């Protein structure tokens, strides 16, 4: 089967169809918000994803658990099935093997464009977490002796755990600067106050899966390099990838990791970018193998092929919402439209819509990161004074609305414990969610609390 058949559903004429418009926020009011996507384009968007309205096990539901894993593109499902059926291996002297190698090479180039990465290496691994561990380990082992490893308390345990472990192994202190509890983020100014010339390795979280706040990666990186220009900087982009643009060329970093199941692909692999200088350091590899190879053993060609489906989707959506002529510009246009639409949804969730009060207007509700926060990316986490988070999640599930409990454990305790919260409810949206689904959520919350 020609791969074009697999990917054909995503191949559409480019050009603006008037499918999108700029939003007028419903913030501070309870009126109707103007949506970024027209009803026709929204129907097309939702039609490209599997299980938009129904759980395959439990029936109809509203999916507000996107931070735990976004919906999957139908093209990804089809592509995965096709490549799972191919018996041939890479690096063989036959046409099928050559096609597999072409697919991998094309995917690496397209993902590099999606990341806007100039130079460096794109590769896949076990998961986004595993790739963060590998890059942070190699940075710590390869950096000049002495110094410190710098991070922040807002980070996911994937980067915090890796930094702590490899700082200890390499005989360095691990310095965690406190994040702003009220805002749920860390700023470039905080890094600037903490960085010293002794920083050898630094980690940055792009977006928090608990607070939902995005960090200024370029600003933080600049603050680090102003004082420690040779530091190796690794970024956790796992939560950010589906909510906004990635622009590695502007970050001046050395590593960036993403979990594709959080950006419309499937479980079972992660994808990362490593700079040339991080790649040049020693790392696990087969003796006598190709120089600069990050991958251990034969990787799944289907993983690379499904990354192409994700890039093609952003490319298609960018063509629907803009008149951009090149793929990178369309990817940026898609990311901007996604950000606008999700902001409309979270504003409605916080401040209300269609005469339904928002969470910020309900008595006894605490919004993690504050209701007024421009850094928010598609996520609202809240707690109620008189009802435990698991009980609210259960009540919403009974009404067909899927959300998630964040507990003050090793995953989220760094965020919730300083706020005096044992748990909180995370409601995470994506651009295929609708204002009608937010209305249903608010109506249910009015009954529950």
From TrEMBL:
Gene3D superfamilies in the record: Aspartate Aminotransferase, domain 1 (3.90.1150.10), Type I PLP-dependent aspartate aminotransferase-like (Major domain) (3.40.640.10)
Domain of life: Bacteria
Compositionally biased residues, Basic residues: 14-27
Upper lineage: Bacteria, Pseudomonadati, Pseudomonadota, Alphaproteobacteria, Rhodobacterales
Protein name, per record: NifS
Pfam families on file: Aminotran_5
Region listing for Disordered, in residue ranges: 1-31
Keywords on record: Pyridoxal phosphate
Composition-biased stretches (Basic and acidic residues): 1-13
Annotated ranges, domain Aminotransferase class V: 62-440
PANTHER family, sorted: CYSTEINE DESULFURASE, CYSTEINE DESULFURASE 1, CHLOROPLASTIC
Bilayer-spanning residue ranges: none
